[in-house]
Amino acid sequence: MTTIDTENRREIARLPARPISLEDRYDPPANFLEIEVLNPETHGFAGKRYTDYEVRMK
User: Fold this and answer.
1) What distances in angstroms separate CA 6 from CA 12, 15, 32, 51, 56, one per listed residue?
2) CA-CA distance, 24 to 33, in Å (whole number)?
3) Ramachandran angles phi, psi of 27, nearest 5°
C-alpha cells in the first residue's frame, strides 16, 4: 500500500492548523445553509419523464 507524505503537499500545507476544543468541535455551526425542496411537478410521458422542483435556500 502506498502512503502519501502530507507534509510535502502544498494544498494541505497552506491550511491553518489550529487546535480545536471539544466544545467547538461539537457545538452547532455558527452559519449553515438550509435548503427546502418543494412543489414537485412531473412532466412528460412514459420513458421521457422528468420532475421539476422549487428550491428555496435560507
Assistant:
1) 7, 12, 29, 44, 39
2) 19
3) -75, 155
| CA 26 – CA 20 distance, rounded (Å) | 10
Helix (H) / strand (E) element for 24: namely helix 22-26
Give SS3 for 46.
coil
For the chain, the domains span 29-58
In this predicted model, what pLDDT tens digit does every residue of 1-57 receive, in sequence order? 556 555 567 766 777 777 888 888 888 888 889 999 999 999 999 889 999 999 999
Which amino acid is residue 24, in one-letter code?
D
In this prediction the pTM is 0.44
